[in-house]
Amino acid sequence: MTEFSKEQVLQSLKAITLPEGGNLADSGMVSDIFISDGKVYFSLSVPESRVEAFEPVRQSTQKHVNELPGVTQTFVTLTADKPAASSSAPKSKGSQQQPKGEKPSKPEIPGIKSIIAVASGKGGVGKSTTSVNLALGLAAEGLKVGLLDADIYGPSIPRLFGLSGRPLQGPGRTILPMEKYGLKVMSIGFLVDEGTAVIWRGPMVQSALMQMLKEVAWGELDVLVVDMPPGTGDAQLTMAQQVPLAGSVVVSTPQDLALIDARKAIAMFNKVSVPVLGIVENMSTFVCPNCGTVHNIFGHGGAKDEAEKIGVPFLGEVSLAMDIRETSDAGTPVVAGAPDGPHAQAYKAIASATLAGLKGRETKGPAIVFD
Ligand SMILES: Nc1ncnc2c1ncn2[C@@H]1O[C@H](COP(=O)(O)OP(=O)(O)OP(=O)(O)O)[C@@H](O)[C@H]1O
């Protein structure tokens, strides 16, 4: 078990001197320190204008803690102390306007061309299943694809890929992603024991996510698909705001309730000026495995109608099918296990539509968003 305590880690930070004098331990910048399995996670809260100046402090802090006896890995991130949705600007119409051609101020992740978030307004609609099969569909288009499971509260990618164990350490204290079905895969589920993640606090969640983006040796990727936590709360909003997203995909079932939630997810991305590439309707119809009859048990077409109404692209639909569930549960997503079957075709069509949306955005520049 761990032979060092939070207090020891904090005390050791007295050795880190700040640019303006004083030491880090007494600065009040250090968040709660979280220790799991020899790994240490914490963030340093700095004024937004000082983020760049504090990067060397972050690096030396990380190195310093890494050298403490018993520490196997350290994750230190900088968090700019700024509430999720622009606290100073009034939330009036047009307050999130982003001038055409101006890049979002979020730093890009070197080597990763585009990051796409897969989100849902509520849990259990098939967001993770969609993320996995979308990522595989993009890889089938010949792209270099990574998959990041940011569903800190319930990471399911390890199960969906049949992956377990700890990732290996890469050069320069980076973490090597796992690889399966041609994808590079990283999940918080690989780093902490099952059940640990649920006790994480907000800043820790952000730290872990940013570490997984920046300190995993992703290499060159055309697309990184991020499986977001379900819902539209503060954690999701902050993630959508902090990660340099090229676009988002919102998954919904056709039921009214899920569509209301999907609308909330779309509003969330609009708020932080992330383009919504489109909606996926999951469990759109039920195809009876015995007789092949198609049943519209959830009121098929709801998401498509909704997408048209709110002017968001409709990326496609996926049936409720036992083989999608069974293959996922067995660690072989349907696009990998039955790439020529009807469900894989549906996911591949969604991947093509997503890619087309992404390319359209690239050439047009960021959208001007009014919320
Ligand atoms: N099209 C589908 N047909 C049949 N089963 C599906 C389909 N999509 C997802 N499922 C199943 O529904 C369950 C929930 O799916 P999944 O974990 O992808 O949802 P989620 O939205 O990511 O959930 P959570 O928000 O709880 O993480 C899983 O058992 C999955 O296998």
TrEMBL record:
CDD domains from the UniProt entry: Mrp_NBP35
One GO term (biological process): iron-sulfur cluster assembly
InterPro entries in alphabetical order: FSCA_dom_sf, MIP18-like, Mrp-like_CS, Mrp/NBP35_ATP-bd, NUBPL-like, P-loop_NTPase, YlxH/NBP35
One protein family per Pfam: FeS_assembly_P
Boundaries of every MIP18 family-like domain copy: 6-73
Keyword GTP-binding: no
Binding site for ATP: 121-128
GO molecular function: 4 iron, 4 sulfur cluster binding; ATP binding; ATP hydrolysis activity; ATP-dependent FeS chaperone activity; metal ion binding
The entry's keywords: ATP-binding, Hydrolase, Iron, Iron-sulfur, Metal-binding, Nucleotide-binding
Biased composition (Low complexity): 82-99
Keyword Nucleotide-binding: yes
Region feature Disordered, mapped onto this chain: 82-109
Role: Binds and transfers iron-sulfur (Fe-S) clusters to target apoproteins. Can hydrolyze ATP.
Subunit structure: Homodimer.
Family statement: In the C-terminal section; belongs to the Mrp/NBP35 ATP-binding proteins family.
Protein name: Iron-sulfur cluster carrier protein
Organism field: Martelella mediterranea
